[in-house]
Specification:
Length: 283
C-alpha cells in the first residue's frame, strides 16, 4: 500500500528531509505496515512537516513535545505503530526532558531525530548539536559550547535500541528505520542530516568522508561497553569518525507491558468508519 500523497513537500531543494521522508515510506511499505495503523507525531521544525507529506495518521504538536503525544497515543492503543519525529533543536533543547524519561521508561515508540546541527526553520541559529566553533546567526564569533552527546546519553539512560544513520544513504537509512520499527520498546535513531541552506559546514560530502557503518566493522549490538565506546568516537576523534548503524539493542519489557492494568484492560477501541471521502477531499 502506497504512503504517497499528492501534496509536494515545501522544503529547500536538496534538503536532507527529502531522503528521510523517502526512506521512511520505503521502510513502512517493506514492513507491510498500513497507513490506518500508523501514526507519525512531530513538534515544530522543517522536518516536523513530515506528517503532512505521508499517508498515515499524523499529529503536529508544539515545540519539543512530540514524545508525550506519541506516548499517550501508544498507551491508549498499543496496536498502533507510533513514530515521533523531531529536529535536533526541537528534540534536544525544548524536548530534552521528554527525551530523557522516554528512554528510561522504555515506551514502545520510535524517536527519529533529524540532526542538522542548527535551527533551520528559523534560518540558522545555533542548536544543541552545533559543533564548538561553528558560526551561526546567534554565534557569529563561533559557538563556545560543546555539543550535546545524544547517542552516549541514550545508552547511559538505558534505551533499549540506539542507532544512527545518514540522510545521504537512503538504503542504509531505510534498513535502520526498519530495525527500529520492529524493536519492542523505545527506539532512538539519530539521523545526520545536511541543511543545504544554512549549514555550509556539515555538507553531504563532509558526512560521507566521516561516516562508516557499524555492521561493516562487525560491531556486536549486544555489547553495551563497545556500543558506548563507538558512540563516543565523534567527540574523541575531533569529529572525524561517525559510526552509523545500530549501536545497541536489548529486549526488555516496555512500560505498557510492565503495567498490570495495561495487561488486563483492552486498549481504546474506536468504532471503524469509512473516512475515504474526507481523505480524498483534503489529501
Amino acid at each position: 500500500m502506497s504512503f504517497d500523497i499528492p501534496e509536494k513537500p515545501q522544503w529547500c531543494p536538496g534538503c536532507g528531509n527529502f531522503p528521510i521522508l523517502l526512506a521512511l515510506k520505503q521502510a513502512l511499505q517493506e514492513l507491510g505496515k498500513k497507513p490506518s495503523e500508523t501514526v507519525i507525531v512531530s513538534g515544530v521544525g522543517c522536518g516536523s512537516k513530515i506528517p503532512h507529506y505521508i499517508r498515515t495518521y499524523g499529529y503536529e504538536g508544539i515545540h519539543g513535545r512530540p514524545l508525550p503525544l506519541a506516548e499517550g497515543i501508544k498507551l491508549a492503543n498499543p496496536n498502533l505503530l507510533v513514530i515521533a519525529i523531531a529536529g535536533d533543536g526541537d528534540g534536544l533543547s525544548e524536548g530534552t526532558q521528554h527525551f530523557v524519561h522516554s528512554a528510561r521508561r522504555n515506551h514502545d515508540v520510535n524517536y527519529f531525530i533529524q540532526d542538522n546541527q542548527l535551527y533551520a526553520l528559523t534560518t540558522g541559529q545555533v542548536s544543541p548539536t552545533s559543533m564548538k566553533g561553528m558560526k551561526t546567526k546567534t554565534t557569529p564569533q563561533g559557538n563556545t559550547v560543546e555539543p550535546i552527546k545524544q547517542i552516549p546519553m541514550m545508552l547511559l539512560l538505558g534505551a533499549s535500541f540506539v542507532a544512527s544513520t545518514f540522510a545521504g544513504d537512503i538504503p542504509h537509512m531505510k534498513e535502520v528505520m526498519k530495525k527500529a520499527i520492529l524493536h519492542k520498546g523505545f527506539s532512538f535513531v539519530n539521523i545526520y542530516q545536511p541543511c543545504v541552506t544554512w549549514n555550509s559546514l556539515n555538507t553531504y560530502d563532509w558526512w560521507r568522508e566521516r561516516t562508516y557503518k557499524l555492521e561493516d566493522a562487525h560491531h556486536d549490538v549486544t555489547d553495551w561497553q563497545k556500543a558506548f565506546e563507538k558512540a563516543m568516537e565523534p567527540y574523541e576523534s575531533n569529529f572525524t569518525k561517525f559510526p552509523i548503524g545500530v549501536f545497541y539493542q536489548v529486549e526488555k519489557p516496555s512500560l505498557y507491558e510492565s503495567k498490570e492494568w495495561a495487561r488486563t484492560h483492552p486498549p481504546v477501541n474506536v468504532e471503524k468508519q469509512d473516512i475515504s471521502g474526507v481523505l480524498k477531499e483534503f489529501m
